[in-house]
Amino acid sequence: MSKRILIVGGVAGGASTAARARRIDESAEIIMFEKGPHVSFSNCCLPNHLSGMIENSDDLVLMSPEQFKNQYNIEARVNSEVIKINRDKKTITVRDLESQKEYEEVYDKLVLSPGANPIIPKIDGHNKSHVFTVRNVIDIDKLNRYIRNGKVRDVAVIGGGFIGVEVAENLQLSGLDINVALVEAADQIMAPFDYDMAQLLHKEMMEKGVNLIVGDAIGKVDDDHIELASGKKVPAQVVVMAIGVRPETTLAREAGLEIGETGGIKVDHNYLTNDRDIYAVGDAIEVYNKLTRTKTRLALAGPAQRQARAAADHMYGIPHRNTGVIGSSCVKIFDMNAASTGLTEKAAQKAGIQYDFVYIIPGDIVGIMPGNSQFHFKLIYEVPTGRILGAQAIGKGNASKRVDVIAAMIMMGGTLEDLKELELCYAPAFSTAKDPVNHAALVALNILNGQFRQVPVTKVRELVESNACIIDVREKHEYERGHLLNAINIPLSEFRNRTSEIPKDVPVYLHCRSSQRSYNAIMALQHMGYNNLYNVSGSYLGICCYEYFNDQVSGREKIVTEYNFN
Question: Where are the beta strands (DSSP E) in 34-90?
């Protein structure tokens, strides 16, 4: 007798489960239930409709119910809300949202993929007609039409995660005569990046015209403005709530299914709930973090699709090896490509993992090639093992490629030694002979093995304000174009004849443009008997990128004579 598989939710997780089950079993009866009017839409591309990059909202819909039926013999019922699971009878209760009629359907196996709901803070004005969320095609179409009605001058996007940042970016790129503000309660946007790396994204948003406000939460929505917790008022005839998402667990809770410690549906390694005939996948579940060895939630499409395949396989006795998640993601913010994987410093600290990191700024491709640009790369590793824990990359070049390499290394338990010897593709138009990931491993091994010491860009302001001994080894003409306020210029080409100017009785901090020349100076000086030397990680370029945004928005005194981002 053929299986009857019912699936709640028809987007990434649900549709993928259905398609996999069909490939395994041609005789199965498979029915998907979707509360909204569309199944299998590209939710990751929703913000791109606002800029016109995806001109027609209908193009966001990848498959219609008719296509599912004709191509896969899968029945997709839209505008159909599953309101109850009757576990004792192995049925679900469905409400047809067009007729409001309710009916029951029996299942052999049930899959829950209801996704997550946008978080809307219960503040004054949160339910006004000009407050929007972005969860599906209907949402983005309504928002786009409202903004383009000609009466909107200012839009405030609340939340600096993926959706908020991409909505703000696409509105700024829309060509409309509107002002876009992005408000984030935390001190940075994009939580998958550490604070130092996020400053590159802050700078990019600001330079592209977005009014970026961090460290201030929304407090109230009025008709033509929002009021922040600080009391600041920001003009807004449209407010987009993108604070975050909460797993949709109502159906599971009411059915007596276990909810995990993170608030997501609890599942085993095969994505089974505590009911042996009910699976759950996607944004609604909690998953296992491979690195911290704790439960977490991860609202990403890639893991959801793998979970869907594993759940369908398990229904038919096909084994699955659950390796856990590491949280690999990427985003494009105007001209910058940004990617991250594994643990940030914050996450490593929270997990109690002893770690260190390196921050390098090599070229993304060979420097004499057209289109070359600087590439900011941060590699986090465990001390003392050298096990790779995470990476973050930001630049105009191929950030996701480098981070994907690190993601593979993490999943395979790779170390700095493994990464150092990793053989990668090279041609001048694509990379450098020593790829940035290999370069990072070499620097990290030097630090781990005690070849030299470093200080991060986050500590440089403190060094300047305390009048520490800082030596700039760039050439004189570079120094004159901008330097740290108290830095002494002893170029690499001159330092061997000027060692008498370098003290041995106090810590000495050296930097150049991107830390390569200062590293060479340190190695030479150490051979000359100097043992209190520190290389400034990221050097002058990293310092300028780190300091710029906060200098501009706070009006604080600069620690550089001039910024230099080249």
Answer: 39-41, 61-63, 75-77, 80-86
* DSSP state letter for 256: T
> Which residues are CB-contacts of 385 (< 8 A; sequence separation ≥ 6)?
415
Q: How far, in Å, CA of 497 to CA of 495, rounded?
A: 5
Distances, alpha carbon 317 to alpha carbons 7, 307, 314, 429, 555, in Å: 19, 15, 5, 47, 63
160-200 residue pLDDT tens:
999 999 999 999 999 999 999 999 999 999 999 999 999 99
Among residues 278, 284, 249, 302, which one has the least CA distance to residue 12? 302
Where helices occur in 56-136 by DSSP H, the ranges are: 65-72
Helix axis angle, 539-554 to 195-207, nearest 10°: 60
Residue in the structure block whose two tokens are 């090279």:
426
Phi-psi domain of 42 (left: phi exceeds 0; alpha: psi -120 through 50; beta: other): beta
Check: CB of residue 273 under 8 Å from CB of residue 286: no
Element (H, E) at 519: helix 516-527
Which 3 state secondary structure label does DSSP give 534? strand
Q: Where does 343-475 have alpha helices with state H? A: 345-351, 399-411, 416-420, 436-448, 460-465
Tokens of 151: 């009466």
pTM, entire model: 0.95
Give residue for tokens 């100017």: 501
Distance CA 483, CA 472 (A): 8
Query: Is 242:133 a contact under the CB 8 Å cutoff?
Result: yes
Model confidence over 506-563: pLDDT tens digits? 999 999 999 999 999 999 999 999 999 999 999 999 999 999 999 999 999 999 999 9
